[in-house]
Amino acid sequence: MSRKVRLGIVGFGNQGSQYAALVADGRVPNIDVVAIADTDPGRRDLAAERHPGVAVFDDYATMLESGAVEAVVTTVPHYLHPQMGIQALERGIHVLVEKPAGVYTKQVRELNEFAASKPELTFAIMFNQRTNPLYRRLKQIVESGEIGAIRRTNWIITTWYRPQAYYDQSDWRATWGGEGGGVLVNQAPHNLDLWQWICGVPEKVFAKAGFGFRRNINVEDEVVAVVDYGGGATGTFTTATHELVGTDRFEITGDAGKIVVTDSKTAVVTRYRRSEQEINASIPTEDIWKMTSDQFDPNEYYTHETLEFDTAWGGQHATVLENFAANILDGTPLIAPGSDGILGVRLANAIHLSAWTGKEVPMDFDEGEFLAELNKRIAEEGIFPQRS
């Protein structure tokens, strides 16, 4: 390849160090990591040890002003993503933000609006699960109409087990002021993105959440949300971090078929030979008993297809990084445009607001009301400054 994108990594923690290793191992052929920034001296020393020859900075702004980088990926606490994204775009630098795009829609909207004013720059988000071939195939099936109009969706994703020691690692973790929430902003953003990417954006949501339900934390460690898509279609989302043996089961029911995904690896796709409405209208009274007897022939009504894909851990992140660089180099369409990041943040905000108020919340909720409720909880913690 004649040219590679000169990338700076902001934050050399778990994600930032992983991305640097992916590039160093040759898994992202169109990127050179030329700079790493971290405020922690220990992490800077580790970055210099692992990646000799890469410039290491103690300040993000200094790295941006150095002229060394033409693009950055932000692997920092959630509240900083919008601010750092804008700082880079202001200087003509392309941005890939880690998920989630931010903590509340007001700050993410500001990032999106600023990015829209810089159409010559690439703005993307690390929704690496969009590269998962299983979910890409399911999106194709739903969009093609193979299972008809969606009637109901359900996702139980409780495989996010975290012991108390996980939360006790640092003062900012699992706080409203430091992290911005619990399972919805830390573990489940990919699920919230995929759910809407495949099934569509709901109109409103009603939610129940447990705040410090099974862990000594202030934020949510269990959530049950019911969404309304309009037209009678509904969905549920259940997630938790305290189930030692968790469940990952995703169902999409349409009027012409059904999809059941197990463990994010295997999907059984059922396609009706006619729509359920047509099947229903065709069954005479005298044949009702056949539906529950050994004379029932499923092949008369539907077919099954099993889909299973094997994807390497880390490969999906590398694919998003490569796609980000390809968009910069030759305009290859983005897998996950940065502007899409607001969708998951908005749904998480609506779920929080519903759980806090006990009311059903529309997707066009009052951003000021949400921020006021968030700041109330930040003030009660008394650790971090309130947000604006």
TrEMBL record:
Keyword NAD recorded: yes
Superkingdom of this protein's organism: Bacteria
Stretch forming the signal peptide: none
Domain Gfo/Idh/MocA-like oxidoreductase N-terminal: 6-119
GO molecular function: nucleotide binding
Assigned keywords, A-Z: NAD
Domain GFO/IDH/MocA-like oxidoreductase: 135-259
Protein name as catalogued: Dehydrogenase
